[in-house]
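As a representative case, we now present a protein record of this kind.
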Amino acid sequence: MDSTPLSQNDNRLQKAAAPQNCLVVVGGGAAGLMAAGQAALAGAKVVVLEKMKRPGRKLCITGKGRCNLTNVAPLPEFLGHFGPTGPFLRQAFHRFFTPELVQFFHELGLNTTTERGGRVFPTSGKAPEVLAVLEQWLGRCGVHVRTGCAAEHLLVEDGRLTGIICGGATIACKALILAVGGASYPLTGSSGDGYRLAEEVGHRIVPIRPALTPLITAGGLAARMANLQLRNILARVFIDGKKKAEAFGELTFMEYGLSGPVILTLSGGIVDALRQGQEVIVQLDLKPALDEKKLDARLVRDFQERRLEPIASVLRGLLPKEMVAVALEEIDLGADRLVGTIRADERKRLRHWLKNFPLRVVSHRPLAEAIVTAGGVDVSEVNPRTMESRLTSGLFFAGEILDIQADTGGYNLQAAFSTGWLAGRAAAARITEGAEA
């Protein structure tokens, strides 16, 4: 059997015909590729319809091009990263979770490495290698892949899916898996097509919005520190004056505001709050390892030892140089002021600012720039044991099209692989049942 990576042989992709009464997978991303291969292994004839010139484009940019495959966190902790809809994934994770995914890739010849925070990456650090082994696997499984084929309409009769219209042609099928992704990074093919298809056959779409997205802040403070990366920062979120969340990690100042893992993690709740017209403040603790008392003792010691030096020079021992001028303006101290002349109340202002640097969030970056899409197909209308629609027999869902989204750290990609695995197996069983009948 030809095991050449499918994306490297476009002629074979374009000429691959759909088998009669096949299982159709719409979308060639992580969820779709996993679903297609698992369905083929279970005995189904499978065709993948991919609208782009090659599958897996979004997969190749995940994890900053390194592809954070999953996370080794235990199941309860893992589910906790998904918020209210997390419990929907319990069945899929019980069937195919982190250990199974890592073993799956090892058997395909892809070694993995676990890094800080339990994040699992291919050892090579190259996302395209993940796509390559998946494509080779599909070739060995006999999966047909059609690229440049955008799904137009689903065909349903008497509550049962019967086919799909793609490129003006009708493909009859006994089962179909919608795995077209969300609406973020549309240049990779995730342009929200799946929501329309699902809605046309009666599914409710939870309003989509950006998740894991950078934030836009008021004023020009962030721009003055653009591209400055901070590590070991504690960020707290206050909504209408009440503390709602916090996260510890890395942060990056941008021309427009804030980005980095800690901000992306907190962004989901912030986006929802902004949509409701609530005031959002992100408060940065620049010295989370020191409580107020220890930080004050540090300041007193530094001020006494360097009392004849200007405050700007002393602050260089506490802050990156890009932040010194901002700090002095925020606490209203002149850069040339000798530390020996700084009063106790002024030192208190500095201490408070170091522990509570506030930035008002006024908006967020567009959905096209979000790592994942929040919202999607209402999971109450999907059977969590099979990923099959509760409304249309033979229609299955997998991946980001569902209203499931998590923090950064490999959680979202594991959800895509797990729901794809389950949907592929269940859809293949549906076809087998039909053949036996």
About this structure: The first helix runs from residue 10 to 15. The two ends are 31 Å apart (CA to CA). The domain at 6-209+375-436 is CATH 3.50.50.60 (FAD/NAD(P)-binding domain). The chain has two domains: 6-209+375-436, 214-364.
